[in-house]
Design brief:
The chain is α/β, with parallel strands linked by helices and about 375 residues long. It contains 15 helices and 13 strands. A 7-stranded parallel beta sheet has the order 3-2-1-4-5-6-7, with helices on both faces. The longest helix has 15 residues. The radius of gyration is 21 Å and the shape is globular. It starts with a strand and ends with a helix.
Length: about 375
């Protein structure tokens, strides 16, 4: 079974989508009956260990929507039997069946950073656009439920293919190495970590307000915040402005995207991970944190309850005193905290790229099986 996989949404910087495609690609590449070829942007090599072909002109929604004829030709040129796409809008493809992966539907609501035009497209055109696929792949049951709610009546086959922990991510135990990392980032006291793009929909503003509330407590006046992820100059200025206004200049750090080695250090040095987005499709950083024994504090929203179970500190509200109390509990050593962290490690290990790759293979195979 030869599958042409869309990876043109990747720009070469670390991301959850890149982790997913690399991990699933490695698992499927090892199977003798699956032959993958990934489409990537020209000049970008986000999947160096997997077979790739450069495909220009799929880097904007407008170009993607009009690329059906080109994708038909590519599928025929490379002998593909299935086309696995990974971003909206979905073009009209006629040569082979299409499976579309959907991470979340945050653009349907009044989410900060999402344009009115995109929200309107989601409300009026999304269902019809999704029906161009023969199969939909959701990264969590939460996303699958959102899709079913939008696709009343006839709909493509729907498959849940979840994520798992980041391959190669290990806890660093060398205290000197961790101390050097703390000095490098300028946070020598306890700190909470956020991993992902520094954007409003991830709850960065809420995190800054939460830190201010937490530090008013006498047992948490030393806690800082490390934001690890891609950040625009405008977002960096906004974080700096808010931190200065709250008197947190020395306690908030932006370190940009991290490679695997530094990501291991960040998790290992962190005292908690914050997951404050309301529309998480899966939330890889939360699973990574659980796997490495870092408590996760966040909102009971999106896929987080499904992914983390009871092995976390999730709250139903954005009320700052409530969240600050949860974070303080997560930071405080004790038998209760340790028992929950042990449960979290078991929960994190229950997610498997091998199992997810098998699910994805079955999804593609069903597209080639006569009904």
């Amino acid at each position: 079974m030869r599958v042409l996989v869309d990876a043109t949404m990747l720009d070469g910087l670390p991301s959850g989508a890149q982790t997913r495609l690399a991990a699933l690609g490695a698992e499927l590449h090892a199977q003798p009956d699956v032959d993958l070829l990934h489409m990537v942007r020209p000049g970008v090599a986000p999947l160096p260990d997997l077979p790739c072909v450069e495909v220009p002109g799929l880097d904007t929604p407008w170009r993607r929507a009009r690329a059906g004829t080109r994708l038909d030709a590519l599928a025929l040129e490379h002998g593909a039997e299935v086309l696995a796409l990974g971003a909206l809008p979905l073009p009209r493809v006629n040569a082979v069946p299409v499976a579309l992966t959907v991470h979340d539907l945050r653009f349907l609501g009044a989410t900060p950073g999402v344009s009115l035009a995109r929200r309107m497209w989601g409300r009026t055109r999304l269902a019809g656009n999704l029906r161009r696929a023969q199969a939909l792949v959701a990264v969590s049951q939460s996303t699958a439920d959102d899709l079913r709610a939008r696709l009343r009546g006839s709909a493509p086959e729907l498959h849940v293919v979840p994520n798992a922990r980041t391959p190669g991510l290990e806890r660093v135990k060398d205290t000197q190495v961790l101390a050097d990392f703390r000095r490098r980032i300028g946070l020598n006291a306890r700190f909470a970590l956020m991993v992902g793009p520094v954007e409003s929909h991830k709850g960065v503003g809420l995190a800054l307000d939460l830190l201010t509330t937490l530090r008013a407590h006498p047992d948490a006046s030393d806690v800082g915040l490390l934001l690890a992820g891609r950040v625009s100059p405008m977002a960096a200025r906004e974080v700096a402005r808010r931190a200065q206004r709250a008197g947190l200049e020395q306690s908030v750090r932006l370190c940009g995207t991290l490679g695997l080695d530094d990501l291991c250090l960040a998790y290992s040095a962190a005292d908690a991970l914050l997951a404050l987005g309301r529309h998480e499709g899966f939330c890889l950083p939360a699973v990574d944190a659980q796997a490495l024994g870092v408590p996760v504090v966040g909102l009971r929203a999106g896929a987080l309850p499904e992914v983390l179970g009871e092995a976390s500190w999730l709250e139903d509200t954005t009320d700052l005193p409530v969240l600050a109390s949860a974070l303080l509990d997560a930071l405080t050593p004790g038998d209760f905290r340790e028992a929950r962290l042990q449960q979290a490690r078991r929960r994190a290990l229950s997610w498997s790229w091998a199992s997810s790759a098998e699910r994805l293979r079955d999804c593609w195979a069903r597209l080639l099986t006569p009904s």
